Amino acid sequence: MEEIKVLVPEDRVSEFYRWFADWSDGVLERKANQTPDGAGPERGQLTAATEFWRSLRPKERAVWNLWINASPRMLRADEIVRELGLNGPRDIPGTLSWSTRKASKVGFHASWRFRTDPVTEEPIYGIEDVEYAKLLGRARDAAEGGVR
User: Which of 41-50, 54-63, 83-92 has the lowest mean pLDDT?
Assistant: First the structure.
């Protein structure tokens, strides 16, 4: 193994760690090799998304639920902290890093965004891709038997 040091802009550290986890787990290669069947999400993606949902712990499910329900609107870190009863914004990346790894284990690409709001300069998180949020919503419903 070779150690590589990389400078990352402070506001993109969380995004970098998510990308690195995806890369090291082989998610990027699997995603690059996927071919759509022409009828919406790739065949089997709902199954993989459902397996992903079943692997999540309650706090992980809660943050993904927030994003599914808010999509395409991004949520401020303080909104997430308040809704989930976290100690602070620094608790968010830890919760997300585990869920991303769980997704890669079942062949699903966990896709969420982090950035700084250009107006307020506050950190924001969420799912901007409405179709992706719908897929996750269907997976959630399948995993939970349609009841939330």
Answer: 41-50
Residue type, 118: P
Cis status, amide bond into 9, omega within 30 of 0 = no
Instruction: With both helix axes pointing from N to C terminus, report the angle between 130-143 and 45-55 in degrees, rounded to the nearest 10.
Output: 60
Q: Is 95:85 a contact under the CB 8 Å cutoff? A: no
Tens-place pLDDT, residues 72-82 = 999 999 999 99
CA atoms within 13 A on the CB side of 66: 23
Nearest Cα residue to 113 out of 7, 6, 18: 18
Contacts of 132 (CB under 8 A, 6+ apart): 71, 111
The torsion defined by the Cα of 85, 140, 12 and 24, in degrees rounded to 10, comes to: 120
Question: Distance between CA atoms of 93 and 25, rounded to whole angstroms?
Answer: 18
The residue with tokens 């009828």 is: 39
Contact of 51 with 106, CB cutoff 8 Å: yes
Q: State the pTM of this model.
A: 0.68
Q: Tell me how far apart the alpha carbons of residues 106 and 127 are, in angstroms, rounded to a whole number.
A: 20
- What percentage of the chain has pLDDT greater than the value 70? 84
In the numeric block, the tokens 């250009």 are attached to 118
